[in-house]
Amino acid sequence: MTTFPAAPSGSQPSCVWSRRAVLRLGGIGLFGLSYAQLDALAAAPTARQKASARGIIFLHQWGGPGQHETFDPKPEAPEAIRGWHGASATRLPGVRFGEGLPRLAALADRLTVIRCMHHNMKNHNSAGYYSLTGVPPPSDDIRLRDSLDLAPAYGSIVSHLRPSQPGTASFVALPHVIADGSVTPGQHASFLGKAHNPLLITRDPNQPDFQLPELTLPAGLSVERLEHRRSLQQLIDTQARLIEHSLLARGIEENYQRAAALLLSPAFRQAFDLSREPSRLRERYGRTTYGQACLLARRCIEAGARFVNVYFSRSIGGTGGGWDYHGNNGESAVRRLDELLPATDQTLSALLEDLEQRGLLHEVLVVWVGEFGRTPRINNNGGRDHWPQCYCAVLAGGGIRRGYVHGASDKIGAYPTVGLVRPEDLAATLFAALGIDPHTEIRDRLNRPLPISRGQPVRELFA
Description:
The protein has 463 residues and is α/β, with parallel strands linked by helices.
C-alpha cells in the first residue's frame, strides 16, 4: 500500500472543529449549518475548472461487462474472439456497438465511450474497490476485506467536500450492498466518518409496496411534534457537546441531524414515491429492480442529491449474478447475455432520454462502468473470464462530449492501442466535472494527508 507522511506533531485533522472556534463564529446555528457543512467550508478546494455537472449517477455494473458484447465488438476477429453476438452500426460513422444494444446505438451521438480502460486487478472485490474509489487496493486478493483503512466511496468524498443543501442526502446508494463472498470495500465513507455514509436503500423499488419507513413519519406524529422531540434531544445532548468532538461522536450527531432533516423535507421524501411517475415511464425504464432503481436515482438527483450509486447486481455468479459470465457450472453465457443486454439497453437508454427530456442531461453526468471487462478469447466452458487490461466505460451528460469515442483497443480487444485510462483517471475526471480539484487532500484515521485522486482528469472527454 502507498504510504504517506504523517502530519506534524500536535496537529489536528482538518475535519475536527473545536467548540471554541464555533462559538467565535457567533450565531452559526442561525444559518442552519451543521458540523459537516462547516467542515466542507473549511476543506472546500479551489476548482481547477468550472463545474460542468451538479450531480452524478454512477451505474456500477457488478461482475464485469464484456467489451466484445457491449461497446467494443470485434466482428472481423475469429469466432473464438468475436463471440456469440454480431455488431450494429450506430449514429456515429464507423462506430459499432454490440447488436444487443440497438437503443443505445441510436443514442451514440449523445455518448462518450472510453475503449481504453485499464488496470491489473483480476479479483472482483479488489477490482470493485478500485472501480468505486479510484484508489488501487493494497493487493489483488479475493480475500480483500472492508476496512476503515481503505479509501472512501466517491459519493462520500463529494458529501464531505460538496454537500447538498440541508434536508437532502448528498450521497445515495441502491438497491444492494455488493459482495463477492465478503462485502466489497469502497461503498461507504470509511475514515471520513458516518456522517458521509450513503443513504442506503436496499428495498426493491420494483415492489408494489415500495416505501422507505426511515423517511416516513409514524402515524400521529406531526412535523411540529418531531421538531419538539428534536429540541428535547438537543437539550439532552448539551452536556456531551461540551466535550471536544471526536470523529465518532461527530458522526453519531451528524447522522441524527441528517435523519431529522430528511424527515422534515417533504420534497426529498417525495422523491421516493415512485407512484408519482406515469406507468408508461416506469415501463420504459423496465419493471425490474435495476430499472426502477435507475428511475429512483433520477428522482434523487432531481431532488438535490449530488452522487447516486446504482449497483446492477447484488452478487456475482449463479442465476442473476450480474455480468460474471464464465459459462461454468452448467451456466450458459449466451443465456445470461440474452438477459443482460436487453436490460442494459432498455434502462440506460431510458435514463438518458428521460434526463434529456427533462432538461437535466446537460447538468447530470451518467457513468456506466464495471470493475473490469472479459477475456478476448472464449474459454473452454463457453464463457469469458476476468480481464482488467482493456475494458469500456460510457459517460453522458454533465458537460461531457457528445458522440465521442476515446481511445482504442487492438484487433482482439485485449489491450489499449490508443490512450489509456485508469480508474484513478476516471475518478479525477468525475471530481473535475463537479468542480472539485482532484488534488484536494483529505485526512485518514492517522491524520495523514491523502489525495482524493491519484490520477489526472481526461480533458479530452469534456465538451
